[in-house]
Amino acid sequence: MSSFLRQTYGQRIQNHTNPAAKLLLETMERKKTNLAVSVDVVKSKDFLAIIDAVGPFVCLVKTHIDILEDFDYSTIQRLQDLSVKHDFVIFEDRKFADIGNTVALQYSSGVHKIANWSHITNAHPVPGPSIISGLSSVGLPLGRGLLLLAEMSTRGALATGSYTEDAVRMARANRDFVIGFIAQRTMEGVGLQSHSVDNDDFLTLTPGVGLDSKGDAMGQQYRTPRQVILESGCDVIIVGRGIYGKDPSLVDEIKLQAQRYREAGWQAYQERISAHV
Ligand code: 5IU
């Protein structure tokens, strides 16, 4: 197994210059968790209650702010208060995909003003490198970080092969702002000659994680934290319905599930860093 994957999250802080990447690794090391919770609910009350319940167990909360039916900017203030209270990073899963000028406006403006509050966001590499320059013109001065979507968890996803390799090359050329990938496996060494050493330590955040289910009726596919962290070399497990799915109002059950996923993710990580080659 390669060098970065054998390092602890704490040791990897020094491999990064971007403040959002450092913050995420520091938070993971401090709280001993590689669990991120994805909160895909449509009522602000449920959204905030779930985040308050899982807060102690997560390094990061992933949002889709545009699905809130009753959105008002005060929800953002509450989200930020919870981020301070529980010490987690915020990741708006916006999946930008337009030309540089448009994504810069979508990132900075509109109703949601994502760059104002989200430490990390993500983008599809499909428009080419200009999407990174557009977003970094807004995000870099604010100390934000970007993840590129190199792969997806859904059945039949088109982000494979040379598309994925090109995404990694785009990231390597923009290391100040691109901190890693949404992918199903580590991108370490991808697109490089087999004997060359990869000097770029990117973070891999991975959705499509579930302990009790293999998928849903809409193409989602789940793997376990062990498969994701230990076998595939990813760094953060992103779990949504596996944690709040039964009933978003059952706070005790949500806490229990968050603890369960946190333990599974951390155990797989500890096995990884102590594994013999
Ligand atoms: N998500 C995926 N797969 C992907 C990408 C994003 O599931 O490849 I890129 C998002 C969608 C949802 C969350 O917000 O991650 C997963 O939620 P569930 O754990 O409830 O399936």
UniProtKB/TrEMBL annotation:
Pathway: Pyrimidine metabolism; UMP biosynthesis via de novo pathway; UMP from orotate: step 2/2. Residues 34-256 form the Orotidine 5'-phosphate decarboxylase domain. Signal peptide: none annotated. One of its GO terms (biological process) is 'de novo' UMP biosynthetic process. InterPro entries: Aldolase_TIM, OMPdecase, OMPdecase_AS, OMPdeCOase_dom, RibuloseP-bd_barrel. Pfam families: OMPdecase (PF00215). This is Orotidine 5'-phosphate decarboxylase. It comes from Lentinula raphanica. The lineage of its organism: Eukaryota, Fungi, Dikarya, Basidiomycota, Agaricomycotina.
